[in-house]
């Protein structure tokens, strides 16, 4: 199997003018003592324009790769040759470098592209960027060894690149060269050239050698590198990360980790128009999956869908926790730990989990925990600014004093597990440390119930103290400053966290009241929500007058798997009778369910299918569009997708807990939004609405057929 590795660097900014950087760069040739493997280089081709603005030079470089003797013997070579083509444009002040391997070019394909350009906000600074790809087709059965060697050599050279430029800059300075004049066009009239000097002269057709545009780097992109690292603007497609910003706000990353972050972020900008998460949050998902870009992308997309469904971005601004929570939820933020991480204190032992679940329902409790996590993200950002170093996680101190059997009440444990699951999935790598204090004797029982649901990485961060051990050596003082240890733990700091206590039974609500409440939380959005049952699809009618309109849809499958269809009919369906809902209206107090297609209609005679059916799995977020060919009535349909019965899974100890997390088998839930756009308005936003399944990295066959049929309907117009 061929392996393709890609690398994309952040932008490195040199606070020196382009011409001086070029003078330093030129000194690397023909050989460079700082790169011992770079043995020699010969000029193969050279071109200079008459006015000397353009200088293209092609060199053949000889490298002595540090590889095992045996491998060199098998490969039958001592040296590896690369061709490097440098295109310098003194007028535009750009240098583009392209390199590829000549040796083994039929087995291994290496391409590298680098550029030195002027900083968009300061013409006396220079930006450097680099991207590369390595594709190993075959190598005598040593593909993975070669890949490791190549990656190791490559990453060490990336680190060296900056040192080398700085080394030669210093050398130039020692020789008294601190300024290199800019190129000026050879003009007779001197006075004019000096006045119009700062403006860029209009360049002739020869302007940029093909190599610059070949890699698909438009001029705009080359010039639009990230501006001031202080205020990274969120999500403008041209903004790029620069190396100093990464170090200051995100931490020490290896070159490949930086590359994963940049590539995942770029992918998000291209596919998720609009809101994309902050850099530090993207990084958390990469860390949670050991920088495996495909796995990280999958969990991140699922989380973005989930955020959209539950309007999580607006929780802090729009949601006011019910009074019961403010009075009886014994948790709150309390200063920060010794590492500068925000500190959250939870007096779980004092908290009546059963009472809270009965008075609020799981949904409101979950919402509250989400708002705490959102606040945590905000505090991390704040502390990163205050402490001058990246802080991306918080510390949680859980006091179990008072924990008893009441805490093992089943629905309470179930709520806890669901909350842990949701937090694990959507706030990975946010828990820096968990200090569990005053663990009583029942604790191990609770722990065996909960620990299978907790990610291994997270579990390593748990410290558990029984009784008063936390006061001894290796205790709390190692992690938290004496001044802020809360009073209830024998410290001197007043802690504002509510003390909890029993929730009065008068505040308990019935299951029905809570069920209705849950629905309310769902619908505070522009989305409609619908229920889909076996034998009862949900259908929406759209009437089209202007033949070439575009119907667009955006829906999330919240529960179950469904099939999505779009039909066309010349005749209007009968308006649905209210009683057609039959028994279903009882089971779904908030989701609507409407059938429009008459039972006597025949497909192909009364109505026709205009897109191939799309199977959508639970949790997926689907956007798409259909260009209408005819006026008339279009029906969007969400239909129950019946699965083959699966063998019963062997449930672990916590079987009742898991069973309740399973999807109920006969009902699906969809949140949808549809809109009709005139085709001319649509062309502009076409790219943003290409049928995209943001949910998964392996696109199902159904998806591809959907985008094919989509393009065919585009063409047939």
Automatic annotation (TrEMBL):
Q: Locate the PRELI/MSF1 domain: which residues?
A: 5-177
Keyword annotations for this protein, in alphabetical order, are:
Cytoplasm, Golgi apparatus, Immunity, Innate immunity, Phosphoprotein, Signal transduction inhibitor
Query: Its Gene Ontology biological processes?
Result: innate immune response; negative regulation of RIG-I signaling pathway
Q: Which InterPro entries is this protein grouped with?
A: CRAL-TRIO_dom, CRAL-TRIO_dom_sf, CRAL/TRIO_N_dom, CRAL/TRIO_N_dom_sf, GOLD_dom, GOLD_dom_sf, PRELI/MSF1_dom, SEC14/CRAL-TRIO_domain
The record ties this protein, via PROSITE patterns, to: CRAL_TRIO, GOLD, PRELI_MSF1
| GO MF, one annotated term | RIG-I binding
Q: Which residues form the CRAL-TRIO domain?
A: 321-497
Q: Where in the cell is it found?
A: Cytoplasm; Golgi apparatus
Top-rank lineage group of the source organism: Eukaryota
The GOLD domain covers 523-676
One CC-aspect GO term: cytosol
Role played: May play a role in innate immunity by inhibiting the antiviral RIG-I signaling pathway. In this pathway, functions as a negative regulator of RIGI, the cytoplasmic sensor of viral nucleic acids. Prevents the interaction of RIGI with MAVS/IPS1, an important step in signal propagation. May also regulate the SLC18A3 and SLC5A7 cholinergic transporters.
Assembly and oligomerization: Interacts with RIGI (via tandem CARD domain); the interaction is direct. Interacts (via GOLD domain) with SLC18A3; the interaction is direct. Interacts with SLC5A7 (via GOLD domain); the interaction is direct.
Q: What is this protein called?
A: SEC14-like protein 1
Q: Which gene encodes it?
A: Sec14l1_1
